[in-house]
Amino acid sequence: MCKKGKHIQNILPDFDITKPIDSQVSLKNFDGNAELFIGALRDFEDELDARMAELATYVSASDEWSIEPIIDSLQETAAKLGAGKLTYACFYMKQAVENKDAPDAIYYYPLVVEAVIEFKSYTRKCISSTQSLNSSKP
Prior knowledge:
Shape: globular
Number of strands: 0
Number of helices: 5
Order of helices and strands: HHHHH
Largest sheet: none
Mean pLDDT: 84
Distance between the termini: 54 Å
Helix content: over 70%
Radius of gyration: 16 Å
Strand content: under 5%
């Protein structure tokens, strides 16, 4: 779909996209610090609703100028957290916007939304299980 885009393997890590978060990539990005990683998950998860609402507004208005920085930021943070599906969906949407290819950008938007929903569901389970582990420590 991205006709003039860069080759994805040269830009992004190779994620395991069978899971919402590739723990090998994410822990490597946080130098193995699970607490720092969980904190970053919480922060990103807290911001996602507002960012996605803003993105929806700009997509419906076909405001490419405003879409690109949001998608770029989502992609960067998702890559750091090891959220492969979200990273790839954002990458392809961003490429379509950069190539001024509105039909492709619109095509990738639902994939971004789907990846966000999957990511949020998974992170809530991760955060919940971490909280229960911490509360059971003496």
